[in-house]
Amino acid sequence: NTAADIAAVPADLIDCVQVCDGTMPRPTDFDTMIAQARGERAFPGEGGIDLASMLRAAPPGVPISLECPTKYRALGMPALERAKRGRAAVEALPIVDDERTTHGSVSIGVAVRDATTPDADALIRLADESAYLAKRHRNAVATVQSAKTLPHPAA
Fold first, then answer.
1. What is the DSSP string of 11-41?
2. What's the pTM value of the predicted model, to 2 decimals?
3. Per-residue pLDDT tens over the stretch 73-130
4. What is the largest CA-CA distance in the chain?
5. pLDDT tens-place string over residues 72-85
6. Which residues does 59 contact at the CB level (< 8 Å), separation at least 6?
7. How many helices (H) and strands (E) in the chain?
8. Which residues pair with 64 in a beta bridge?
9. Which residues contact 141 (CB under 8 A, 6 or more apart)?
10. Is the link from the previous residue into 153 a cis peptide, with omega within 30 of 0?
């Protein structure tokens, strides 16, 4: 919605703020709105939403997360490249809190399923491992591909 809409919500009701960018004007029909919400969101700075104003309207210190499903972008851009673009978008997004402008950082792990990844549980372990690897370096993107390198949980 708008920065004014966010400012009108009592601060104690906002536990976190989730951001993405999108095309403007906003779609008016339900089917297009759902399609964009599920698979066509844009990284901050790649659309027409005034995210900086919205973040200024949020309560100071509230956690901010990025959620940008990019289903259709995935058809033409590898996961690692999408992750790098997402990380750069977060870093470039200005966050103003008490007259001070800062920039966020994000660590993103990318799991790549290959022939050695036997099932969804193994893929989730890859995702966890890549996220931990990215966090070790702060504001980084890391990828893990082979399930052979991961320990299996005890049965």
1. GGG-S-EEE-B--SSPP-SHHHHHHHHHH--
2. 0.64
3. 777 888 888 888 888 888 887 776 666 676 777 788 888 888 888 888 888 888 888 8
4. 52
5. 677 788 888 888 88
6. 11, 14
7. 5, 6
8. 17
9. 80, 83, 84, 87, 107, 108, 109, 110, 134
10. no
